[in-house]
Amino acid sequence: MSTNTCILAIESSCDETSASVCINGRIASNVIATQDVHRRYGGVVPELASRAHMQHIIPVVYEALEKSGCTLTDMKAVAFTHAPGLIGALLVGSGFAKSLALSLSIPLITVHHMQAHVLANLIDDPSPTFPFLCLTVSGGHTQIVLCRSPLDMEVLGETIDDAAGEAFDKSAKLLGLPYPGGPLIDALAASGDPDRYVFAEPQIPGLDYSFSGVKTSILYFLRDAMKKDPDFITQHLADLCASIQQRIVTILLKKLKRAAIETGIRQICLSGGVSANSGLRKSFIELGNAMHWSTYIPKMEYCTDNAAMIARTAHYKYEAGLFSDLSVSASARASW
Ligand code: KG4
Ligand code: ZN
Fold first, then answer.
1. Given this model, what pLDDT does residue 334 score?
2. Residue identifier of the C-alpha nearest atom 14 of ligand 1
3. Which strands, in side-by-side order, build the sheet including 132-137?
4. Secondary element (H or E) of residue 296
5. Pair (273, 138) in one structural domain
6. In a 3-state reduction of DSSP, which class is residue 292?
7. Do 144 and 271 belong together in one domain?
8. DSSP string, 127-158
9. What are the residues facing 20 on neighbouring strands?
10. What is the model's pLDDT at position 1?
11. Looking at the structure, do residues 140 and 245 belong to the same domain, yes or no?
């Protein structure tokens, strides 16, 4: 049995089944099984996600243990994502983690998925110093978070309707692109003119976001253009993608800049699946340089849903003695 602090972490909140082992806070393995079954339905089907988690969870956990060089008996705690997410998907990870904690007689640690996305920035060096701001942009969430210390965070702003990833995916759908359309918009935008079309910019007070108006503005624009020319989308696809991407990126960074000015914080991070977007990454770095920020983006494996970020967060909770009772439940929505 190891004398190190080894923690096994499970992530199953949406359509990625992932397990990670961290040893004394350093990530020793991070295995992710992506569920391709949803592709043909144009979005994540909750029931299918739960079933796929059931299929993947044992092999993913064993692979994570093997890659880390640890065994189950080395584990000092088991952690899992308890919220937020698809409830059926969360229950698979929660049931598995609880059973393991019970059978190994080790503590159980619950981790909030959105806090873990923020702390993904602390997995590798260089990492931000406290306090820092993090813009978390994924298919399900868009949040600006103030992180004062690993376990002291505050949401300064978030979307009141669609998430940034949804805005990409729904816009892509309007253009006739398959799900998930975000990466396709990114690729097509590379050869397009971002100033060719101008879509609506929401006027939301404070640091909150809204993306539903952008989607409606794109919808009406395309409807009118297609009436005049049925081939409009195919003939102007690259310019449309570049213009849509530019609008979403501008909206995201405007509020982030405002948050940085209002808080006076210059340690600024990005996380979540949408941080793969090349336009967002480029503009984020450029804005950071212009504003004299220190900017951070975790490596891609830690931006999209993964258990390494759950393990990293769990390590902080382990050190703070924050364990959960076996009666703890998963929750689709959860306050911080
Ligand atoms: O964080 P993530 O992997 O899963 C969720 O927790 O939602 O984020 C997935 C989202 C999808 O909406 C996908 O279209 C978007 O991230 N995405 C992108 C890119 N890569 C992934 N959006 C724009 N450009 C990309 N390169
Ligand atoms: Zn996520």
1. 67
2. 182
3. 152-158, 142-149, 132-137, 267-271, 294-296
4. strand 294-296
5. yes
6. coil
7. yes
8. -PPSSEEEEEE-SS-EEEEEEEETTEEEEEEE
9. 9, 30
10. 67
11. yes
Q: Which atom of ligand 1 is nearest to the CA of 278?
A: 26
> What pLDDT digit, counting tens, does each position of 115-130 carry?
999 999 999 999 999 9
- Alpha-carbon distance of 74 to 298, in angstroms, equals 28
Residue 64 sits in which domain range? 6-118+303-319
* pLDDT tens figures, 241-285: 999 999 999 999 999 999 999 999 999 999 999 999 999 999 999
Q: Are 114 and 156 in contact (CB under 8 A)?
A: no
- Distance, in Å, from the CA atom of 147 to the CA atom of 129, rounded to the nearest integer, reads 10
Same domain, 177 and 200: yes
Instruction: Look up residue 68 and give its two tokens.
Output: 């880390």
From the CA of 114, the nearest ligand is: 2
Atom of ligand 1 nearest to the CA of 180: 14
Element (H, E) at 16: strand 16-23
Count other Cβ atoms within 10 Å, centred on residue 36: 9
Structure confidence by residue, pLDDT tens digits, 85-111? 999 999 999 999 999 999 999 999 999
Span from the CA of 222 to the centroid of ligand 2 (angstroms): 31
CB neighbour list of residue 36: distance below 8 Å, 6 or more residues apart: none
**How far is it, in rounded angstroms, from Cα 110 to Cα 81?**
6
How far is CA 14 from each of CA 106, 261, 306, rounded to the nearest angstrom? 26, 34, 10
Distance 196 CA to ligand 2 centre (A): 32
Enumerate residues 6+ apart whose C-beta is below 8 A from 294. 128, 266, 267, 268, 288
- Can you give the pLDDT at residue 336? 67
What CATH number is associated with residue 203?
3.30.420.40
Among residues 93, 74, 51, the alpha carbon closest in space to that of 307 is found at 93
- The alpha carbon of 273 and the centre of ligand 1 are apart by a number of angstroms equal to 4
Residue 290 and residue 150 in one domain: yes
Find out whether 64 and 29 touch, Cβ atoms under 8 Å: yes
Q: Could you tell me where the beta strands, DSSP code E, fall in 60-169?
A: 75-83, 108-112, 132-137, 142-149, 152-158
pLDDT digits over 15-34, tens only? 899 999 999 999 999 999 98
